[in-house]
């Protein structure tokens, strides 16, 4: 959870807590608002990671953001989870390009390659994908990688030892804010009734919805 003020100050909290998002999100939001000394009514935008990733976590984030958007009548900014992870990777590994990967279960990974632009912002190369681990071809030019997808794929993927991989790195709200600032500048916002979840694995999502 992170809050960006107009003067550039960032207030944030980060916690790894599986299956506790519903309880922790309101608490963390209140905490950063108190720390920043501002009220919810002063918010101008609400951003959230819209996937890909764990379906339950994505839905909780989207529903929370949608509730805030409706209650405060403010626009929302959906940001790719992979893009947020890539921004963290590019910043922390001081890289110009990175291959980010998240475990998608069932022997698959969500993955994408991102480059850093002149402003230090992660830019997608090609498209985000979900593939069988064995089907992902590592470009020889890749020198940096991040995400737990690398951990589950390390015995299958063939890549040079010179590739620096941080398989414990996770998307975080501070990295998200960098992407959000660009989205605001480019007027890439949506209303609360227009949000879309980036599942990538659409067939699984559709099957779950029919149950």
Counting structural domains, the number is 2
Mean pLDDT figure:
90
CATH class of the largest domain: Alpha Beta
Distance between the termini: 32 Å
Q: What gyration radius follows from the Cα positions, in whole Å?
A: 17 Å
Largest sheet: 5 strands, mixed
Instruction: Enumerate the strands of the largest sheet in spatial order, edge to edge or round the barrel.
Output: 7-6-5-8-9
Low-confidence stretches: 203-211
List how many beta strands DSSP finds: 9
Strand content range: 15-25%
Class based on secondary structure composition and strand pairing = alpha/beta
CATH level 4 superfamily of the largest domain: ATPase, nucleotide binding domain
Summarize the structure.
The protein is an alpha/beta fold. The protein has helices at 21-36, 55-72, 81-92, 148-153, 173-185, 202-210; strands spanning 2-4, 10-12, 46-49, 76-79, 97-105, 108-116, 122-132, 144-146, 164-166.
Task: Give the arrangement of secondary structure elements.
Layout: E1 2-4, E2 10-12, H1 21-36, E3 46-49, H2 55-72, E4 76-79, H3 81-92, E5 97-105, E6 108-116, E7 122-132, E8 144-146, H4 148-153, E9 164-166, H5 173-185, H6 202-210
Parallel strand pairs: 3-4, 5-8, 8-9
Antiparallel strand pairs: 1-2, 5-6, 6-7
Helix pairs in contact: 3-5
Please give a structural write-up.
The chain is of the alpha/beta class and 211 residues long. The chain has 2 domains: 2-80 and 172-210, ATPase, nucleotide binding domain (Nucleotidyltransferase, domain 5); 81-166, 2-Layer Sandwich (Nucleotidyltransferase, domain 5), CATH 3.30.420. It has 6 helices and 9 strands. A 5-stranded mixed sheet has the order 7-6-5-8-9. Helix 2 links the parallel strand 3 (46-49) and strand 4 (76-79). It starts with a strand and ends with a helix. Residues 203-211 have low confidence and may be disordered.
């Amino acid at each position: 959870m992170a809050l960006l003020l107009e003067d550039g100050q960032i207030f944030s909290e980060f916690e790894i807590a599986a299956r506790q998002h519903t309880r922790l999100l309101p608490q963390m939001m209140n905490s950063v608002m108190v720390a920043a000394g501002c009220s919810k009514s002063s918010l101008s935008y609400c951003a959230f990671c819209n996937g890909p990733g764990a379906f339950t976590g994505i839905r909780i984030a989207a529903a929370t953001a949608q509730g805030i958007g409706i209650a405060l009548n403010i626009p929302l900014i959906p940001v790719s989870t992979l893009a947020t992870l890539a921004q963290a990777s590019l910043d922390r590994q001081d890289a110009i390009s990175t291959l980010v990967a998240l475990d998608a279960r069932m022997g698959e990974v969500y993955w994408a390659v991102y480059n850093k632009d002149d402003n230090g912002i992660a830019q997608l190369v090609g498209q985000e994908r979900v593939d069988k681990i064995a089907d992902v071809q590592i470009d020889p030019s890749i020198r940096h990688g991040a995400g737990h997808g690398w951990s589950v794929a390390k015995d299958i993927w063939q890549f040079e030892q010179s590739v620096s991989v941080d398989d414990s790195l996770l998307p975080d709200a501070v990295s998200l804010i960098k992407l959000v600032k660009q989205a605001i500048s480019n007027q890439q916002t949506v209303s609360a009734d227009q949000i879309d979840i980036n599942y990538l694995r659409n067939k699984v999502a559709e099957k779950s919805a029919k149950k």
